[in-house]
Design a protein that fits this description.
The protein has 597 residues and is mainly α. It contains 28 helices and four strands. Helix 3 runs antiparallel to helix 4, helix 14 packs across helix 16 and helix 17 crosses helix 20.
């Protein structure tokens, strides 16, 4: 074994030292792999006798590819892989050296192995070993020589021509190699071609699974899992925020496309929508999207396309039942992925929303109102009321909501409750600032603001529970104080609905954590707000209404337009502040400490 390894390494070093004879090294190393060498044949045969199946996992490391097995590796198999990998590595060295003299050396190699593969498949008893070596070898060459003219394109064309021509286990290996070419950041057009291939394979194989399928669609089913694994590897290894965001758009678009295909199939066959076979094909993409989002910061102010895709993503999650942790229908891994996606998802209302946004949901939703049965719609309404604990003030609204608004409300519920429960920094800010302050929701005549307000109460319950279970340390106290500050500021919001919600939230927060009453940070913020509001009475209401910053906080207060409204705000907040101080004075020791500070 050491002698063989030295000889293989020597061929690579000779080619690097003397490029004029690199073609000789290429010829020797190529034949060692695809003739193949008697020692490779012997080791491969012995390894197969001990294990009937080689489960190969191909991973990219910089400009190199490493082949690993998922089972316990026997000494025989280990020796086989070391020899094969050494031959491939030195073949890459020889090709790089030869390319300085002959730019068509890679094309010549691909032509030679194509002919060898054809003859091996026709009559050779070792066709499996030969074909596997050829695919792994070309994958390594593509990664090692990325950016070299006439290299990656040539190998990509070879893979495309060979892929699924006659369905076999070799197709899975080709998918792995294509995925590694993407991970290694080969030329941009290679990325585009491979990602389009993966998208087409996923959609076609999923369509074949829904019911009747053509022969062309069915031919990809045996590689569908390999494609999902390749997408997961790409999501876990792609570099650059721009590239990750572009991949996120592709994955979300593929998810929605599969959902649409499944809905079309379910319309042609009896059965409930969420029980259709499309759910399984959708669910396998959830861990892939979660892997990618795990590496990205929380998404705020997304582009309209990404925002629409996220809204459609959550639509399918709620109607397919992926948000239920105890349904027993889907793997736990999918639910774990949904939780991670919720933490990074943007708010489901647009930052540029218009008054008609809620009404336009029925026209822009991935699933239209007219494609849903009465029973499905009623089931969604019942689900909403159960989650919101049947509040009397919104039951009438929910019972009149169309499908699009029902799924939107369920999506908001699950995104925001899962976000609060599983985020490292749970916050009430999004449900108030992004949703309840949204002008389109406030002006909606179907009662959507009231419904979202009811959702916000459930979010508050989850938040209080999470904060109670957190360790009682300085970090938790700082978070609680910051939320109290936020709610005190919003107690003076321009809109009366937000003032009421903030009052209710602050009361619940203080009931659960009464020590906030004597927090110096909270009390000083309250007094600062009162002072600023008093100062606002001296500002001319005929001038442009300013926004005043609260000291020692990131928040501002937008003043009311009229002097009468400002006076009413000051009066209400003065009475509220007086009540808080009186309550705090019941804790005399703490109050004295505050006064001394």
């Amino acid at each position: 074994m050491p002698l063989l390894m030295v000889c293989l390494e020597g061929l690579g070093k000779l080619a690097q030292k003397f490029p004029n004879i690199a073609s000789t090294s290429i010829y020797c190393l190529r034949d060692f792999l695809i003739t193949p060498s008697p020692i490779l044949s012997k080791l491969h045969r012995q390894a197969n006798e001990k294990s009937n199946k080689d489960n190969l996992k191909i991973t990219a490391y910089g400009n190199e590819l490493k082949a690993e097995t998922t089972k316990t590796v026997s000494p025989t198999l280990s020796a086989f892989e070391k020899l094969r990998d050494a031959a491939i590595e030195n073949l890459c060295h020889a090709l790089r050296a030869a390319h300085t003299i002959d730019q068509d050396c890679v094309r010549a190699l691909v032509a030679a192995v194509s002919n060898r593969l054809f003859t091996a498949e026709k009559s050779d008893s070792e066709s499996t070993l030969i074909s596997t070596n050829i695919v792994i070898m070309l994958g390594h060459v593509a990664v090692s020589m990325k950016g070299t003219p006439k290299t990656t394109d040539t190998i990509l064309q070879f893979f495309q021509q060979r892929f699924c021509r006659v369905p076999s286990a070799l197709d899975t290996l080709i998918v792995d190699q294509l995925g590694c070419m993407v991970i290694s950041q080969c030329e941009p057009h290679v990325y585009e071609v491979v990602m389009k291939m993966f998208t087409m394979i996923t959609v076609e194989s999923s369509s074949a699974a829904y019911g009747k399928s053509t022969k062309d669609k069915a031919q990809y089913r045996h590689v569908s899992r390999a494609v999902i694994n390749a997408l997961a590897n790409i999501a876990d290894n792609v570099q650059g925020e721009q590239q990750m965001n572009e991949l996120l758009g592709r994955l979300l678009e593929l998810f929605v496309q599969l959902g649409l295909e499944g809905k079309r199939a379910s319309d042609k066959t009896p059965g409930a929508l969420k029980a259709s076979s499309s759910a399984g094909n959708l669910g396998v993409l959830i861990p892939v999207i979660a892997v990618l989002l795990r590496r990205l910061p929380p998404i705020k102010n997304p582009k309209p396309r990404i925002h629409k895709l996220f809204r459609d993503f959550w639509l399918y999650c709620v109607i397919m039942g992926f948000t239920a942790s105890d349904s027993g229908l889907w793997p736990q891994e999918w639910y774990e992925g949904v939780k991670e996606i919720a933490v990074k998802s943007p708010a489901l209302v647009s930052s540029t929303s218009s008054r008609s946004e809620m009404r336009e949901l029925q026209y822009t939703s991935a699933v239209r109102n007219d494609s849903v049965s009465v029973n499905e719609l009623q089931e969604l309404r019942t689900q909403i009321l159960d989650l919101l604990k049947h509040p009397a003030d919104i039951t009438a609204y929910v019972n009149k909501l169309p499908f699009a608004q029902c799924t939107f409300l369920l999506s908001v519920y699950w995104v925001e409750t899962l976000r609060v429960q599983h985020s490292g920094e749970p916050s009430l800010v999004p449900i108030i600032s992004d949703y309840l302050c949204d002008s389109a929701l406030q002006k909606d005549k179907a009662g959507m603001w009231n419904c979202v307000s009811s959702v916000s109460e459930r979010v508050l319950e989850k938040f209080l529970e999470v904060m109670k279970n957190r360790p009682k340390n300085e970090a938790r106290e700082a978070d609680l104080e910051q939320h109290a500050q936020f709610l005190l500021v919003n107690f003076n919001h321009q809109h009366k609905q937000i003032r009421r919600v903030s009052d209710k939230f602050l009361s619940s927060l203080v009931d659960r954590f009464p020590h906030l009453l004597w927090s110096r940070r909270v009390l000083w913020t309250m007094l600062d707000i009162l002072q600023i509001l008093s100062y606002s009475l001296q500002i001319d209401p005929n001038q442009e209404t300013p926004a005043l910053r609260i000291p020692e906080t990131p928040y501002t207060i937008q003043l009311m337009d009229t002097l009468e409204a400002r006076e009413a705000i000051v009066k209400d907040f003065s009475a509220y502040s007086e009540g808080i101080i009186k309550e705090a004075m019941k804790w005399e020791p703490h109050w004295d400490a505050f006064l001394r500070s």
